[in-house]
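Page 42, continued from yesterday. The earlier attempt failed because a stray header line got pasted into the input along with the sequence. Redoing it now with the clean sequence only.
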Amino acid sequence: MFTFAAMLKPGDPAADLELPDEQGRPVRLSDRWKERVLVLFFYPKDNTPGCTAEACGFRDAYDELSANGAEIIGISGDDAASHQGFIRRFQLPFTLLSDRDGRARKAFDVGRTLGLWPGRVTYVIDREGTVRAAFSHAFQPTRHVQDALEAVIAQRSS
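This time it went through. Structure tokens are written below.
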């Protein structure tokens, strides 16, 4: 697994931020994690091969993750219009948030992959806002889905 030295670790508090969704509506992360376990995945860019594979993997696992008490939210630096097209094109059933200024990446310690492009990191956050699992498989985007599902199931049984 490729990890970032500064990436949040299990037991760390998650940052409570408000970011716009694909419709431009503000979404406060704590409002979401207070209701369900939150699978928060940071990805580099809409409509790129790895990011599309990852997002479609989460789409395909959506029912199972949801049945196990999780909500999925994706975050990238793309704007609302890009997210709308990405959601429509691939029929994504979850929220995408825009991090245009990079403050969410900074707050969640999501670095850059090889110093070149935004990192790919997934966090599983419990209903108290604590990180329970963290993954960074920069070059294996679909692995995030299976790891997140395993962490959600483990969280549910604990």
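Notes: The chain has six helices and nine strands.
Reminder to self: strip header lines before submitting.
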